[in-house]
Amino acid sequence: MSTSASVVFSAFISATDPRLQGWLSHRGNLQANEYASDRVVRSPSSRDSRGETANDRGHAPQAGIWRLLAPNGREIGRSSSVYGAFTVAQTHVLDLQTRVDRMVATTVTGPSAGTHGWVMSVDDISVMTSGRWYGTTSTTKDACAGAREAFRNALVMADARRLMPSGARRPRLPSSTPHLAGSW
């Protein structure tokens, strides 16, 4: 087991994947008082001459996120953005790690009584959110501070994993084979 946090990247099968929609819903609840765009962050080269991504023609996933995991594998934070390409997501994480001291935390009240979460911003742009609801404001603040410190030195994974539909079996790949290096 690793002794440091890690940032992992997950690719959704499609932009309509129910897990992505759940993630967007959770983010929307966290950012109810902030501008919450469902835009996908894309690299300029991710579109072909017709302005389509590979997924527009059904060839590859077009949406992915990153998650900050504690050494025990528990999610302690997640990206605020949906990314259109793995390289864009990875570059963004590496850039954010150099700007941890500029991250501003905001605690928010959840959709029901006794639920609290947090949003982390850099230059008034939301970059990371809590992955779950907390029962008290003090627990939320502690979790947010822990996530910020864990993110600072987190190991950033070199590839992404495609999230499979519920009940689907992941094909076995040799351990040396990256799952989706360089793309979703």
From TrEMBL:
Official protein name in the record: DUF1508 domain-containing protein
Task: Give start-end positions of Basic and acidic residues composition bias.
Answer: 36-59
Q: From what organism does this protein derive?
A: Cryobacterium gelidum
Q: Where is this region: Disordered?
A: 35-63
